[in-house]
Amino acid sequence: MKRNKDNKVIKILYDCMIDIVGGLLIGIGIYNFAVNESFPLAGISGIALIFYHLFQIPIGAMSVILNIPIAIGCYKTLGKQFFAHSIRSIIITSFVIDHVVTLLPVYSGDRMLAALCTGVFSGLGYTLIFMNNSSTGGADFITMAVKIKNPHISLGKIVFILDMFVVALGGITFGDVDGTIYGVIIAYLLTVVMDKIMYGIDSGKMTFIVTEKGKEVCRKIDKYSGRGSTILKGKGSFSETEKDVVMCACNNKQMYTIRKMAKEVDPMAFIVIMESNEVVGSGFKAE
């Protein structure tokens, strides 16, 4: 019983630490790089930035206010656990953004560097929180609700589509065409960072090798690359000839060797190579 209680305490502390680090990264991207350059940002942070620009309302506090109606509307779709985690993240990140990040020095150099840093820092912060089964609310609630309804669409793409509307609104408010362009760059970079970290770290290649020598191809692949493979049974649609379809997942560097080995065994093999966003299982990422 005591061990379970200790584990819960450790988990709570870990979650809070992730929120603090994520809040720091997001806040640095917003306050220390974007605000001084008047970049129109996306999401609830972007709307809060508009209020900060017009009325000097703290970004973190305004984010909490804007989150209330969105949270109520998305509660049923997101579920109780995710909702509770997100409320914790909203409170912690908002506090960190308003009361910790504002103590750090503000960057006042090149606008392009500021835009790049905004996208990278914010993307890292949001990704940390997303990967911990939480969110910073607002547009994140909408994003996760859309993701639940459409699981085949990546989070980065959903975020980018929603962000364009807010960036355009911010561009109109700030009246800065160059700033709006930078805002689009930031939104795109943020989604790239999110997708690469969430899906790209464990990405690789997937190949299907159509051959009459499936077992020989598998043995060759295993001997020279150390990768296991799976033999599927197929039939030519025109010739109706029985074929082996060797399916193999590997990292990017191993694909050249696998392709070469397959052709050595069967020069007539038909090979299809494609990207795999994530590979989970033995020899790859553990679930």
Task: Kindly list the characteristics that best describe this protein.
66% helix, alpha+beta, 287 residues
> Given the structure, what is the number of helices?
10
Classify the oligomer: single chain
Rg calc: 24 Å
- Return the string of H and E elements: HHHHHHHHEHEEHE
Give the neighbour order of strands across the main sheet. Answer: 2-3-1-4
Return the structural class. alpha+beta
Bin the strand percentage.
Answer: 5-15%
Proportion of residues in helical segments: 55-70%
Describe the structure.
With 287 residues, the protein is of the alpha+beta class. It contains ten helices and four strands; from the N terminus they run ααααααααβαββαβ. The chain has helices at 2-37, 43-55, 59-78, 80-99, 111-131, 139-149, 155-174, 177-200, 214-225, 255-265, and strands spanning 204-211, 230-235, 242-250, 270-276. The chain has a four-stranded antiparallel β-sheet with strand order 2-3-1-4, covered by helices on one side. A hairpin with a 6-residue loop joins β2 (230-235) and β3. The mean pLDDT is 80.
